[in-house]
Structures are given as structure tokens and as C-alpha cells.
Automatic annotation (TrEMBL):
It catalyses: D-erythrose 4-phosphate + phosphoenolpyruvate + H2O = 7-phospho-2-dehydro-3-deoxy-D-arabino-heptonate + phosphate. Keywords: Amino-acid biosynthesis, Aromatic amino acid biosynthesis, Transferase. Pfam families: DAHP_synth_2. It comes from Kitasatospora purpeofusca. The lineage of its organism: Bacteria, Bacillati, Actinomycetota, Actinomycetes, Kitasatosporales. This is Phospho-2-dehydro-3-deoxyheptonate aldolase.
Length: 445
């Protein structure tokens, strides 16, 4: 049955929604947003669903990554280029090692809203509403800045449009040429202490490219890259205003991004976020933390993927390095036994956050790596497909996570701690992770 009403969630409890003080301003903003053009085309969402279908069948790998929280002042050519470049470099290494296509999805062009553990923040005895992402309020710790302002939803739309426009230009205009991406990887291997241990892998990729070149193979696929956008569907008023009936199929698509996911804090089975996600045809992700029960996973499948369509539903597990080997096996086993075929990917970030002695929220590179290893081990033991990774990263040389080949120490964290919310892997740590995951694929780690 075709669904054309995206508002059904409105009668249900919705966690983590902003308390907009001016409802009339919100109403006007949402009406404006509903009249704006889509940011993505529904057909592209279908294309991504098909690509993810291949991941679900074990024929492809998903690389999903980007900022924890995008910021309006981060919409610059430099930031976007660095992030994209890092993701493309990671994808090139993973493609070679896994010998399957890597589906590339950014946490980009819409990742402006954050669920929070507490609704307030206290500094030096002053308590204010917590920062909920640039789509809602300001990061600055002042009473004015922390008031939710619906005008920010329009800024999110515009920032997403500008970002996507540049991403499309980079990925189709020649910047993302595989030979260029490989040259960047060679620079990383040659010029950084972290990269040197991957010389052999880089040499093999070099030989493969030289061989294809010698054979006269220079396909268009080398020059352009298929790249998709994704974000957490958190602020439901915004997502609903961007949800449209597709003229081709008569079905609803959330055209704010190609893929949207529902977070760990908003995936309650009978609440608004799952209801909203069940009405749209985009590929949907759901975060699964260590307390997820088999019943919850099976009900999520029933609600979000009743047709059992490979590629429709991605389970993004974020258990923590210490828990993944205990918490994941039963879930994967029982879901597989039910006949469902979701994509399984590993978010090795959100279960591994801690506060350093300096007061910075951080993550250890070794924990991140260990969770990915555990994820691979569990899937290998069960004969299921470790379908991909979901990583918070930036292309900039920030100091937010500790460890990595070009080691960031706890004492270094203050140097370039720029995230508005959670700590991201920097450029070198991200590449390090990609090479290590590549080695896991080849069974050498
Ligand atoms: O990115 C994820 C969440 O928004 C984040 O971990 C919440 O952080 P908090 O615990 O500081 O609110
Ligand atoms: C909030 C996030 O993660 P989780 O829902 O897994 O905590 C996130 O990925 O930004």
C-alpha cells in the first residue's frame, strides 16, 4: 500500500526534540522548507538502496564517515575537500583489500543535529540548555546562543545544499580520479610515520593500477566517484518538511539526504522516530548499542523492513570494544536465523568515549581498532558479512582522539580540539584505520 502521509509520528512521543520557544516562527519556517527544492533525488536514494543490497549480500563494503556534528562555519571548500579526500583515500585502500566495491556514504550535508545525554550544561556554576547542534542552537555558552531558533533549520538546509553541491562537483569533475587518490595515499605512506608500515600494500595497489594502465584500461569509473550523503534523522519537523511524494513511484522519500539513520537514543520501538522512518523509502540505518535485545532487533526489522529487502535496513552496531564480542553474536545469529538480511556495519566510536584527565571527551585509537576487530571476528565466526564501518572523522589534523600511528597523547588533546560534540579521528588516524581494516580483510591482522 502506498504511504503518502509523513506526519503519522506526530501523535507519538518523540525523544530529543528541541523546545522551540516561538511556535509561530517554527510553523513559518517549516512551511518555507516544505516549499524548497529537494536536496537529493529520490532515484539516487533507490540507487543507494541497491548498492546497499549488494553489501547485505556480501558483495560490497560500506564506508560511512564524517563529522560528529557539522557546523555552519565549517562549510568551506577546505573542510569539505579534506573530509572528502580522506574518505576517498580510505575507500581506495579498502576496495583493493576487500576486492569488492566500496559504497561511499558521508556523514555530510545534513549532520547538524545532536542527541544529548543531558538537556542542560553547567560551567562554573552557570546552567544553560545543552548545545543540540547548529540546526537548533549555538555552541557559544551564553543564554542567547542556547535558545533554539527555527531560523537555523533554514541555515541547515542551505549549508547542506552548498556542501552537497561541492561534493557533487568534486566527485564528478575529476578531482576524485582514482589515480589521484592513490597518489595521495602514496604521500601518506611515504611521508608519515603511521604510513610507512603500509608500503607493501601501497606498492601492490600501484602495480595493479600500472597493469591496468598498460592494458589500456582507463574506465570512466576511475575518473568519477559515486558518493552519497547521510545524517541522523533527529529533528523530525525538519525531516518531515523535506519529505516528499516521489512523482515516479507515488512513495515518500526524505529528500534531505540519501540515507538517514535513527540513533541509539531515539530508536524506541513505539516512538516517533521509528514511525517516521517506516514511512519513507530511503535506505534507513539504526544504531544498536550493547543493551539491544534480539526482540528489539527483530521488531525493528518488522517495522522498517517488512519486505526483507536487502539494502533497505542497515544495523549500525556500536557496542564498545569491551562488549562487542559478547553482545553482537546472539543478535547477528538470531536475526540471520529469522531470514532477514540487513546490512551490518560497525560504528567503533560511540561505545568507546571517555573523559580524559584533561577534561576532554576522547576515544582511544586502539579501542576503535579493537571494536572493528571484534566485529570482524564475530561475523567471521558466524559466516555472516562484516559489511562496513561507520566512523566519526575529519580530514583535518585535529587532536581529539588519542593514539594512532602518528600518536596523539592525552597531553596533546588541547592543541586542536575543534569538535562541537564528540571526538573524531583525524586525517592520519582515519587512514591508519583504513589500512588496518584492509589488513584485517587480508587476514594479516
Ligand atoms: O554523537 C553522539 C551523541 O550526540 C553524543 O555522544 C552525546 O554526547 P553527550 O553525552 O555529551 O551529550
Ligand atoms: C549520536 C550518534 O550516535 P549514537 O546514536 O550511536 O549514540 C551519532 O552517530 O552521532
Amino acid at each position: 500500500m502506498t504511504v503518502t502521509n509523513p506526519h503519522t509520528w506526530q501523535t507519538l512521543p518523540a525523544a530529543q526534540q528541541p523546545e522551540w520557544p516561538d511556535q509561530e516562527a517554527l510553523r513559518k519556517t517549516l512551511a518555507d522548507l516544505a516549499s524548497y527544492p529537494p536536496l537529493v533525488f529520490a532515484g539516487e536514494c533507490d540507487q543507494l538502496r541497491a548498492r546497499l543490497g549488494a553489501v547485505a549480500r556480501g558483495e560490497a563494503f560500506l564506508l560511512q564517515g564524517g563529522d560528529c556534528a557539522e557546523a555552519f562555519d565549517g562549510v568551506s571548500a577546505e573542510h569539505i575537500r579534506n573530509k572528502l579526500k580522506t574518505l576517498l583515500q580510505m575507500a581506495a585502500v579498502l576496495t583493493y583489500a576487500a576486492s569488492v566495491p566500496v559504497v561511499k556514504v558521508g556523514r555530510i550535508a545534513g549532520q547538524y543535529s545532536k542527541p544529548r545525554s543531558k538537556s542542560t550544561e553547567t560551567r562554573d556554576g552557570v546552567t544553560l540548555p545543552v548545545y543540540r547542534g547548529d540546526s537548533v542552537n549555538g555552541f557559544e555558552f551564553t543564554p542567547e546562543s542556547r535558545i533554539p531558533d527555527p531560523e537555523r533549520l533554514k541555515r541547515m538546509y542551505n549549508a547542506s545544499a552548498a556542501t552537497l553541491n561541492l561534493v557533487r562537483a568534486f566527485t564528478t569533475g575529476g578531482y576524485a580520479d582514482l589515480r589521484q587518490v592513490h597518489a595521495w595515499n602514496q604521500d601518506f605512506v611515504r611521508n608519515s610515520p603511521a604510513g610507512q608500515r603500509y608500503e607493501q600494500l601501497a606498492r601492490e595497489i600501484d602495480n595493479a593500477l600500472a597493469f591496468m594502465n598498460a592494458c589500456g584500461v582507463a574506465p570512466e569509473e576511475f575518473r568519477t566517484v559515486e558518493f552519497f550523503s547521510s545524517h541522523e534523522a533527529l529533528v523530525l519537523d525538519y525531516e518531515t518538511a523535506l519529505t516528499r511524494v516521489d512523482s515516479r513511484t507515488g512513495e515518500l522519500y526524505d529528500v534531505s539526504g540519501h540515507m538517514v539513520w535513527i540513533g541509539e537514543r531515539t530508536r524506541q520501538l513505539d516512538h516517533a522516530h521509528i514511525e517516521f522512518a517506516s514511512k519513507i523509502r530511503n535506505p534507513i540505518g539504526v544504531k544498536l548499542g550493547p543493551t539491544t535485545t534480539v526482540d528489539e532487533a527483530l521488531t525493528l526489522i518488522e517495522k522498517l523492513d517488512p519486505e526483507r529487502e536487502p539494502g533497505r535496513l542497515t544495523f549500525i552496531t556500536r557496542m564498545g570494544a569491551g562488549k562487542v564480542r559478547d553482545a553482537l553474536p546472539t543478535l547477528v545469529e538470531k536475526v540471520t536465523a529469522s531470514g532477514a538480511q540487513p546490512v551490518w556495519i560497525c560504528d567503533p566510536m560511540h561505545g568507546n568515549t571517555f573523559e580524559a584527565s584533561s577534561g576532554h571527551k576522547t576515544r582511544r585509537f586502539d579501542d576503535v581498532l579493537d571494536e572493528v576487530k571484534g566485529f570482524f571476528e564475530v561475523h567471521r565466526a558466524l559466516g555472516t558479512h562484516p559489511g562496513g564501518i561507520h566512523v566519526e572523522l575529519t580530514g583535518d589534523d585535529v587532536t581529539e582522539c588519542v593514539g594512532g600511528g602518528d600518536e596523539v597523547l592525552v597531553d596533546d588533546l588541547h592543541q586542536r580540539y575543534e569538535t562541537a560534540c564528540d571526538p573524531r579521528l583525524n586525517r592520519s588516524q582515519s587512514l591508519d584505520l583504513a589500512f588496518l581494516v584492509a589488513e584485517m580483510y587480508r587476514g594479516t591482522v
